[in-house]
Design goal:
Elements: H1 11-26, H2 36-46, E1 49-57, E2 63-67, H3 79-88, E3 93-101, E4 112-117, E5 122-126, H4 131-146
Antiparallel strand pairs: 1-2, 1-3, 3-4, 4-5
C-alpha cells in the first residue's frame, strides 16, 4: 500500500517497482486485480458508507464531483447535490470514491476512512486501523467489486 508519494511522482511507476520486489515472496502474478470502478458505484448505493466525495466521468470525458461540506456529513444530505446526482443517472463512470465506512459491530466499532481510485485501481485506507478493520473493509470492497451492476 503506497499512501502518499512526493509531488510529481507517478503511482503506477512506484507500484511496479514494489510489485517487482514482492513478486518472489508473494507471486503477485497469481492475484487478480479487481474492478475498483464497479466497487465505487456499488458502495455509493450500498448504505454502508458516508459519502464524503464521489466523482464520475461522462461518456465525453467531463467530470462531476459531489463533496460534502464536512467530513461528518454525507454529500447527499445536501438536497441540491442529491438532485444533481440523480440527474446524472447511471450513464457515467465512477472515478473516485472518498468514503467513511460506517460502524458495523462487531466488525467495525468506528468509521474507517477509505478512498478508491478507479484510474489505477488503488485503495487507500487512512488512519491507524487494526488488522480486523482492514480485513473487513477490504472484504466489503471485494464484494462490491464483483457485485452485479
Amino acid at each position: 500500500m503506497i499512501q502518499r508519494l512526493p509531488s510529481g511522482e507517478r503511482y503506477d511507476v512506484s507500484r511496479c517497482v514494489y510489485e517487482q520486489q514482492l513478486e518472489a515472496m508473494l507471486a503477485l502474478g497469481n492475484f487478480t486485480r479487481l474492478p475498483v470502478r464497479r466497487a465505487i458505484r456499488s458502495i455509493e448505493a450500498s448504505g454502508e458508507v458516508r459519502k464524503r466525495q464521489v466523482a464520475h466521468e461522462t461518456q465525453r470525458g467531463g467530470r462531476a464531483s459531489f463533496t460534502s461540506k464536512s467530513r461528518q456529513l454525507d454529500a447527499f444530505e445536501d438536497p441540491d447535490l442529491q438532485k444533481s446526482r440523480q440527474a446524472l443517472g447511471g450513464q457515467t463512470a465512477s472515478v473516485l470514491g472518498n468514503f467513511y465506512w460506517l460502524p458495523q459491530p462487531p466488525y467495525l466499532e468506528r468509521p474507517i476512512h477509505v478512498k478508491l481510485y478507479a484510474s489505477d485501481r488503488r485503495v487507500g485506507i487512512f488512519g491507524e486501523c487494526t488488522e480486523g478493520e482492514v480485513n473487513y473493509v477490504l472484504s466489503r470492497i471485494r464484494h462490491h467489486s464483483t457485485a452485479s451492476p
